[in-house]
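As a warm-up, study this chain.
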Amino acid sequence: MRTADDGRGSRRNVWAGLLLLALVAAAVLGVTLSGGAKKAAAPAPVSRSQGEQLRERDIAAKLAGIGSDADYDRAFVTLAARCQEQDAALAAEVDTVLTLLRNNAVDDENRLTVMRDMADPLPIGQKQSCAQVADGYVTVHEESH
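Now compare it with the structure written out below.
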């Protein structure tokens, strides 16, 4: 037979089970509402210089005579100091010059040589339109090949 104590123990077990269930539900709900387990933040992308990006394009195109990152950085900084165009616009100008040369069978150039050759005749301290300089540079190279 059941005694009064059996009923109380049974009720305690029910209440303990309900309390445990409520705690588990609250924990699950809390994790769900907070977006689940937190993932580690992805590292911030490392910003590459324009010179490094130009070098990477030369590597991808498998061009000859590729210098170091430092060579490309120095050449880009030197050219930028002499050109009105800056950053991405100047890098695009270098890409355009190389494309025009390659389309006209000038195959011995890469972005490094283009930057160096374009910067050489430009005066230090005066910013020129490198788009105009590039036109002359392409014309001279096409005629010499």
